Amino acid sequence: MPGEARGARRDGRIVIVGASLAGLRAAETLRDEGFEGELTLVGDEPQLPYDRPPLSKLVLLGKAGAEDCGLPARRPIDARWRLGVPASGVDAAGKSVVLADGERLPFDRLLIATGTRARPWPVPGEAALEGVFTLRTSADAGRLVAALDAGPRRVLVIGAGFTGSEVASACRERGLEVTVAERGRAPLIGALGGTVGDWATRLQRAHGVDLRCGVTVTALTSAGGRLTGAEFSDGSRIEADVAVVCLGAVRNTEWLADSGLAAGPRGVACDAGCRVFTMYGIVTDDVFVAGDVARFPHPLFEYQLIALEHWGNAVAQAEIAAHNMIAPGPLRRPHLAVPSFWSGQFGLNIKSVGVPTFSDQVVIAQGSPEERRLVAVYGYRGRITAAVTVNRAKWLEHYRRLIESAAPFPPGPGAADHLADLEPVPSDVPDPRVLTHGPTVALTGHLPDRRLTLVRHDG
Amino acid sequence: MPADASSADTLFRRITDYANRADPYPLYAELREHKVARQEDGKYLVGTYDEIAALLHDPRVSSDLRNRAEPDPSIMPPEGPPPSFIGRDDPEHDRLRRLAMRPFGPPHSPGRIDALRGDIARISGQLADGLRGKSSFDLVDDFAFPLPVTVICDLLGVPSEDIPQVHTWADTVVSGLDFPPDEDPGARRHAAYEARSAMGQYLGELAEKRRHSPTDDMLSALANEDGPEGALTQQELMVTTVLLLIAGHETTVNLITNGMLTLLRNPEALERLRAEPELIPSAVEELLRYEPPVQFLPQRTPLADIEVAGVTIPKGVPLILVLAAGSRDPLRFPDPDRFDPARRDNQHFGFGSGIHNCFGAPLARLETQIALTTLINLLDGPRLLKDPPEYRNSPVLRGPRHLLLGQGKH
Ligand SMILES: Cc1cc2nc3c(=O)[nH]c(=O)nc-3n(C[C@H](O)[C@H](O)[C@H](O)COP(=O)(O)OP(=O)(O)OC[C@H]3O[C@@H](n4cnc5c(N)ncnc54)[C@H](O)[C@@H]3O)c2cc1C
Ligand code: HEM
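Above: the input record for the complex with protoporphyrin IX containing FE. Below: its predicted structure, written as tokens.
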């Protein structure tokens, strides 16, 4: 290893802000790659890092406790943990992180991994009602499970993105009545487009969900501080004693407001090596970012800055960021992983590779919606940019390779299980503004021009 | 260019040549140089990791021999029921595999394999006890062979008095896969076909009995399936259970045997496993990479022209994926010809990959882990009496026919 060691920065002080998936995996990678200096992890949640995907799946079903989702420690990281206290700022010139309790943590290199939080219901008085929940943390999940255990007569889910759809699925599996309200035309449409969204509509209805699309919740009604129901923009109303607000995520960047870094509501912008830009667009060399809070350029998507709320991205990017924090310049690596995502709902395993919203057309390449088994392939200007599988994850790697090699769209003939010679149709990705929930993939650079001509829904 | 003994288009002939059975690895290295090698008879061989991975995940690559442009009588029976799911494509493959999985593993039967742990340990212990005090023995006949058959028969619900018969059938079927150098393959294949039918018949009748008086074995579960997708038809049930019996038979035997052979050739690895038994699971993975029981997959056919590493493999030709070559690809595995029981990041092709990846892998892993642990603990200073050992004919299911070991003071 002497060759590798040359120029490597193995000592000094590294501070990681955000002690969740990206933060933990970065810490482990730093030690794996020989970092011997002082390592501090700062997290505003009181507990050790835990995994979020089970919170909307196993935990809501009662198959795992909200407290039982701790992330496995894959190796000792010999770190100082500062848990239960948020970082409130970065002094870029003085190279230190300021904590809310006043402590200053000097650093030689900093990793920002503060992720996102649940977007709250916009009317504070209604958001505070008993019976109104969001779902991001294990504490949130614990409270929601307790409410579901109490056997509510009806659960209202506001927003039919992935989280909302998973919550609805868990409620149905528990035998609870569910109403889902979504401003867009269909569930999942913001992430997967209209073709898959229409299928998701049929799926949810077949599972007994009272799905209401194209409407917004205009008010949450209450009595004595307790939720009693909701009113919709179409004039209808329902009674419900639990509402789960699934409006997407807000990036945790406010603490960086005075840092001089390129941090804002769309995330913290960085280069392909996870190095953060200053607000002037100049790249730093001591501040790095990874996970849900990052915006990074991706060559497969025309170097647009993208922000992904994907577990796999948080891990891959954390590993790259950690590597680059200690590797000398020529040995640094770019974060190029093709985005991928999974979700479990209504008994189906949904996975995606690439960025389905970066598309103008889609074709069902294998299987069929009726068979609860399909592969949808997305294209943008004649090349393949994404694929979504339903109960067909084993084929995903093939489509990942096609995306990586910018293979022509639509895919060529010959695939097994190709039931019908379907023609590609418009992928029908709505402008994110028409959705109830925020997008889980945000293309934050220029938009494919198709979006400019896209149908806008009212409301 | 005329085909000579060293040109790439004779590789398949050389790989199947019995003379190269003990050490095919130099041929695999030669194959990797070419990535894709067209053979004199129109077969295509692929031997590099990335290319194999791509083809195993490519939906345009069929496992159904009925898609061959020219039927190959040497591996495809001319008549008989439709193939089992190892030889089918989606969607039928998916339906049949899922129905077979219901009583075997997650999500419907997550505990089934783990519950066999005690039985497997008991059977291994009994077999190993039989070796105690013997100064020499054949590991294949005396240990590695009886273990997996007994286990799969128990699991399916074959009564113990019928196991010897099943054993004989399985043996005949498997030897039908051999490419004997000096013998007309016709007779062997016919016998294999007959044995397969007899086995199917037997299992079908057994399942019929269980339909009326179910017990807690897999046959009962398959026969009485009442899930949302319905049950296997009687014919599907016969073909599927024969597949389960055959697929897990000689493969597991070879893994256990190759395991002891490899450990005895690498005494420092053997010592390490003795001292650190927690390394056994990773050692089994390394064996699956280093000496895999399934050396290549001879049954694939492209459904369209497919470009691989700059070569177009035409629709309908025999496509042979040499898993054992891919698992020793230096571009994927550092120091690939070294046996390293603690190797990390070991995504070998021992169980294939993609939708046909081994159905029985959890069982095979458990059996081999327990078998090797038992042998390491109970054998008294084992040593190889013949190296290389005598191999079976088959270049696909490659493994020693006998592995003569000595133990005790010499
Ligand atoms: C219910 C749910 C289900 C999901 N399901 C899936 C799924 O099926 N598949 C998938 O791919 N992804 C899924 N995800 C997304 C996945 O969990 C995220 O991509 C992942 O958690 C991102 O990790 P991260 O470390 O970047 O951010 P986070 O996990 O958000 O962690 C950031 C941490 O930083 C802390 N923090 C924030 N600000 C500060 C501050 N100023 N000071 C100190 N600490 C701070 C936060 O409290 C948090 O602990 C799901 C997410 C949720 C909530
Ligand atoms: C060490 C032992 C084993 C090895 C090395 C092995 C290897 C393999 C390989 C390489 C394949 C892929 C075939 C292909 O892609 O065409 C496969 C498939 C299969 N194996 Fe195994 N196997 C072993 C044990 C078992 C056992 C114990 C069982 C049964 C319980 C089993 C049942 C199957 C079945 C049914 C398939 C077909 C899967 C499909 O087509 O979807 N195997 N095995």
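Notes for the reader.
The mean pLDDT of chain A is 91.
The two ends of chain A are 60 Å apart (CA to CA).
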